[in-house]
Amino acid sequence: MRKFIAVYVDLENVAGIVDLDSMLQDIILEENQEAPEEYIFAVKFACGNSQSISKLRGQLTNHNFEIREAPHVTGKKNRADLIISLDAFEKLYLDKPAIDRFVFVTRDSDFSVIMDILRKYGKEVWLITKEGDEQRPIFTNSTDNIIVLSPKKKSAPPKKKPVSQSTSDKQEGNHGKKSRKTPDEETRDTVAEELFIKVLISLDPSEEHLLNAIANKMRQLNKSFKIKNTSYKRMTTLAKEFEKKGWFKTKKNADGHLLLSDLEASR
């Protein structure tokens, strides 16, 4: 199942505090659906003056954002909010592509007008904003979900991070010798572990989570990721390595699928 997402970045208000790489990952990780979904960022639109654009031009270009310059007209006020709101309304009216979720990255309460309109017509509306703004009633009353921008990327406690060597230690040849990983294998294993950790720390530790759903989120975060290209070969092997280190407990559900529970250790 595909979910089409439109992301609008108000550069005037967030250019100095947002990391696009982390932000787009947070949108995927925030999703609480267990059923595998493919998230399509169908609209990626950023608007601001030339100075704010320059702060994020590299990341905007790497993620194929449409960049629209909105120079100041009077004093410090520009028309970024109007330009973004009209584009979002146009997408709603044309319904091509049919957007399921509109995400606004801003601190400007003027966007509450278009957010209310979108929700009125059955669209899901998310807000990504700076810490402190998430409790403002004008935002909480016009959105379905709010994500707080964090300047620091999420990382796991060093003492909990699995060591790839533990897997290779088990890989013995016919003569009882341990096989050694190539640099490429080490890199792929590290990528797998870091993706797994990133998803784990985003999950509700009090709930049970399907390993298949976690694997889907890992692939969404990194489209080139394939567990078969790592030394683990299977997601169950990767999960068992983490379980041994106390990250969580595993069990099988009625359908035989692996469930992860007791994720407090991953905090």
TrEMBL record:
It comes from the Bacteria. Transmembrane segments: none annotated. It holds the Pfam family NYN. Residues 5-148 form the NYN domain. This is NYN domain-containing protein. Residues 151-162 have a biased composition (Basic residues). PANTHER family: HTH OST-TYPE DOMAIN-CONTAINING PROTEIN, SLR1870 PROTEIN. One of its GO terms (molecular function) is RNA nuclease activity. Residues 169-188 have a biased composition (Basic and acidic residues). Gene3D superfamilies: 5'-nuclease (3.40.50.1010). It comes from candidate division KSB3 bacterium. Residues 149-188 are annotated as: Disordered.
